[in-house]
Amino acid sequence: MKVAFIGMGTMGVPMALNLLKAGFSVTVHNRTRDREMSVAEAGAQRAESPQAAAMGADVVLTCVSDTPDVEAVLVGPQGVIHGAQPGAIAIDLSTISPMATVALAQVLGQRGVTLLDAPVSGGSEGAKQGTLSIMVGGDAEAFARARPVLASIGRTITHLGPSGSGQITKAINQVIVAGTYWAVAEGITLGLKAGLDMDQVVQAVGGGAAGSWGLTNRSGNMIVNEYPLGFRVRLHQKDLKIALDAAQKLGVALPMAAFVDQAETGLIGRGYGDEDISAIARILREQAGLSE
Fold this sequence. Notes:
Elements lengths: L1 E5 L5 H10 L3 E5 L7 H5 L3 E2 L3 H5 L4 E4 L4 H9 L13 E4 L5 H12 L4 E4 L2 E2 L1 H7 L2 E6 L2 H12 L2 E8 L3 H29 L4 H9 L6 H12 L8 H18 L4 H15 L11 H7 L5
Parallel strand pairs: 1-2, 1-4, 2-3, 4-5, 5-6, 8-9
Antiparallel strand pairs: 7-8
């Protein structure tokens, strides 16, 4: 099976490498071309545009930053739509507007290309290890055909319904992540201020009802006040805004998500937008006099 992968960012590169390891023939493209090099050195072909990457591919995966980027890559002047063959499957791993996803699926469908929205969760670690959670919306038959590709980059792969269902599910995921990280940050700050050994505290509470991926994998950042990149603050805020927009349209109040959105606005304004989202602990540490 021939696979194209467009978007060689923090998540895209390791996912493309895992596709190669699984034995797929992979062609890659990225707007900043030098980011293709590490995957090309591992055996991938390079393409000059999304259109060129899609030519002859059975499956075309995209993983880019936001709704306008996905629209440009899929249906823009040099987009996938101009190179993909009828019967091909496009899989968008990005997190974008559910409404835009439905519209894109309709446009691609007119050319015989099926779009699956398949946003992922699990951070850069999950992308490297091939253990991502993948939330899929779109045609069930196309999902079944694409599953071997998805299985090479993810562990939990769930088909959730028609087009847009994956994006709504990812919005739910990001709302829960927002609340979890804020709660972990509050707990870590309280323990630090009390003078406890926080590694022991995390071990103690992590085995009970307070256990979570965020506590296990990001509490260490909050303890030492260092936030190496896993998933950027500014990208998480973009995802939260998608969730808040969907909630507004559905008449649902998301007060916690709105609060974290404002907290992240403050972090971005202070130059922390490219740190990992666990940097939200900076706010609570500073308020508690624990800025160092």
